[in-house]
Amino acid sequence: MNIFRILGDVSHLLAIIILLLKILKSKSCAGISGKSQILFALVFTTRYLDLFTTFISVYNTVMKVIFLICAYVTVYMIYVKFRKTFDSENDSFRLEFLLVPVTGLSFLENHSFTPLEILWTFSIYLESVAILPQLFMISKTGEAETITTHYLFFLGLYRALYIANWVWRYHTENFYDQIAVVSGVVQTIFYCDFFYLYVTK
């Protein structure tokens, strides 16, 4: 495992922790897209089914479990514990516009036509667009709390570091996963406009 992968994982985890602490401290889900969080929970669920079939390392297993727990705790906070503070009116992105094409693509373009592989591919494609409801919500309201922008920044940083990780792995291991790389680049592009606003403001 290289430094880019570790820093990417840390950035990803930090983003989720920032979001959870924001909700717990303010006892509010204002400005947070519940739909994006549902999609991320779905991403982790379909990607980490190999927890039941394959052991890679203690680090790998612990990180997967933490991401799963955090994803579902976030969804619980938004839709159950602090649902009165959730802005459902502005969280109006239609998820079928993402889920239908992602599902179709995961059946058409995958490494092998097996249930676990199709679900893993689905998670990769879905992660690349899962942030769109959050970005749509921000563009619709025209505002975002500082803590929410920090969350988005570290999510974007995680993706950028993973691109560096893939470049490193290609040069050191001659390993290249076209599905993961293309999806990761697409996801990073979605963050570019946000990165510009984050840095300038």
UniProtKB/TrEMBL annotation:
Membrane-spanning residues: 62-80, 120-138, 150-168, 180-199
GO cellular component: a single term: Golgi membrane
Membrane topology: Multi-pass membrane protein
GO BP: protein retention in ER lumen; protein transport; vesicle-mediated transport
Keyword Transport (UniProt): yes
Annotated compartments: Cytoplasmic vesicle, COPI-coated vesicle membrane; Endoplasmic reticulum membrane; Golgi apparatus membrane
MF GO annotations: ER retention sequence binding
Organism for this UniProt entry: Trogon melanurus
Protein name: ER lumen protein-retaining receptor
Keywords assigned: Cytoplasmic vesicle, Endoplasmic reticulum, ER-Golgi transport, Membrane, Protein transport, Receptor, Transmembrane, Transmembrane helix, Transport
Family recorded in the similarity comment: Belongs to the ERD2 family.
Main location: membrane
